[in-house]
Structures are given as structure tokens and as C-alpha cells.
Amino acid sequence: MGLENRLKQYRARDNLNQSDLGKLVGASRQTISLIERGDYSPSVILALKIAKVFGTTVEELFLLEEE
Amino acid sequence: MKKQKPTLKFLSIICISAILGGLLGGSLIHFEAVIYQSIINLQDFILRNNYLIQSVILGLCAVIILIVFFSAKRKLKRLEQNDDAFFDQIDHQLGFLLPFISATMIGGLCLFGITVTNALNEPVLPGLILFMFNTAFTLIMTVLTIKLTKILYPEKKGNPLDFNFDKEWIKSCDEAEKFVIYKASYRCYQLMNFVYCGVLTLFLLISIVINIGVFPYLLIGFLWITQTLIYAKSANKLQHGQLDNVQ
Q1: B179/A40 Cβ within 8 A
Q2: Domain boundaries, chain A
């Protein structure tokens, strides 16, 4: 089961680049890039921080991809 | 049946390895003179051309380091905040540069070992100068590359000349970066187990034709056991309450 995400869409909506989002949640640009590409599943804390920045829920941002 | 399969596979590999090892060891005796002469010739060649080999290897490494460093530096000046692909390009270059500088420094140390071994047959001074130059160059380049990395990632902390650099650096990494470091370290641990085993086997085979003494075995044994024990001790510590992943 993989993890899909809508980070890119939300970033575009709020006109944020990866570095900006990284600064807001205390992560590096590289980490945001890894999450967006689906190469890294963030911890619960980081997922909650990202959701808070976009004013949404973790479930709205991250979706479990059924195999 | 499912449980038997891996056991059967393991036993088959052990048997095939034993047969191959026996055959290889046995056949080595027939080529003993040729192999012995080849090893002696190789050693003579290295010792005779010691400084030339060192200059070519270390010089080539220095050129590669300078090219990659200045290329990354130039790109960093042109970097715009929104260009994620360009950002990744510089990150890749720096990701290559730091380990390459470390490898050059380690290589210089090993090559200096050859100079010391050959001290009775040739003057040591050129080798010492080469070694000191390489060490100073790699140290300066490490500091400069870390500075470049800090421009790319301003949140990174630590001075490479400080003995606590590793601790400070990892402290300033976020969860994904730490995950990458831990995963890469485990991969290195796994691979090193194979490397030790391979080198030990190679030494055993070489021992058939040439006396290499006891120190290679003691050294590999010491390194292998140290690595295994440090890994086991750290894993045990982390399993019993020192896994600090709460941010």
C-alpha cells in the first residue's frame, strides 16, 4: 500500500515553493521534495504540521493508495 | 515446505562455495609460481613507481574535486528560489563532492603507508610533502564544500574542523535526512559484512601461494568483530528506550 499526496496542488494553491513550505514546517526543501514524489512517508508530527499550514486535515493531504 | 526452501538454498550455496573454494585453492597450487611472480612483480612496480602513482592518482582526484566544486559554486550563484530542478542538480553535485573528498583523503593516507613501507629504498620527504599537501587540500575543500552546502541548506549547522561536527550536523538534519543517513549506514553495515568475508577469502587463497603473515587476518578479524559488536550494542541501546525520535 503506497501513500499518495496532494502537496503539490496545495502548494500551488497557496503560491508556496518547496523551500517556503519547508521553512514553515521546520523541514528541508529536500524533504518536501521527497514527500511530494512519494519517496518518503512523513512522520505523524510532520504530516500534522503540513496539514496545519494548508488549513486542512492530514487525510485530505495524504491518501492511502490501495494495491 | 516454504521454510525448507531458504534452508535448502543456503545449504546448496554453502556446498557450491566449498566445492568452488576447494577447486580454486587446489588449482592455485598448479599456478603457484605464476601467481607468486605476478604478486611480487605488482608489488615491485608499485614500490618502484610509488611517487608517480601517488602524484597521478591524487592529482587527478584534486582536478575532479576542483572542477565539481567550482561548477557547483557557479550554479549556486545563479540559483533562483523557485527552480527546484536546478536546486536538485546542485544538491547532487555536492552529494558527490563530499564523499569524493573523503575518499581522496583516505586514499592519500593509504598511499602514505606505501611510502613508509618503502622508506629504506627511497627518500621519504617527497612522499611526506605529497601526503601533507593532500591532507591540507582535502581539509580545505571539505570546509569549503560544507560552506557551500550551508548556503544551499541554511538550516545546517556545524564546523567540519570541530570534533563534534557529526553530532551537530545530524542534529540540524530533519527527519527525512536522518532517515536517509540511517538507511545508508545500515546498507553500509550489510555490505561491509560481505566485503570482510570476501577479503578474508582472498587472503586465504593468496596465503596458499605466498606468505602474507598473520596481521591481515588479525586486522580483518578485529575490524569485523568491532563493527558487529558496535552495531549490536547500539541496536540494543536504542531498543531499550534511547530512540529519540520525538521532535
Answers
A1: yes
A2: 2-65
The residues in B 161-220 lying below 8 A from A, measured between CB atoms, are 173-177, 179
A43 closest CB neighbour out of B81, B91, B175: B175
B118 burial via Cβ count (<10 Å: 0-12, 13-18, 19+): middle
Residue B245 with chain A: CB contacts under 8 Å: 43
**Average pLDDT value for residue range B151-175:** 87
Task: Give me the pLDDT at residue B1, please.
Answer: 53
pTM of the shown model? 0.78
Q: Residue B237 is which amino acid?
A: K
Q: What number is the ipTM of this complex?
A: 0.79
CATH 3.30.420.10 at A2-65, yes or no = no
Given CB atoms, is A31 within the 8 Å cutoff of chain B?
A: yes
pLDDT at B84 (0 to 100): 73
Please tell me the predicted confidence (pLDDT) of residue B192: 95
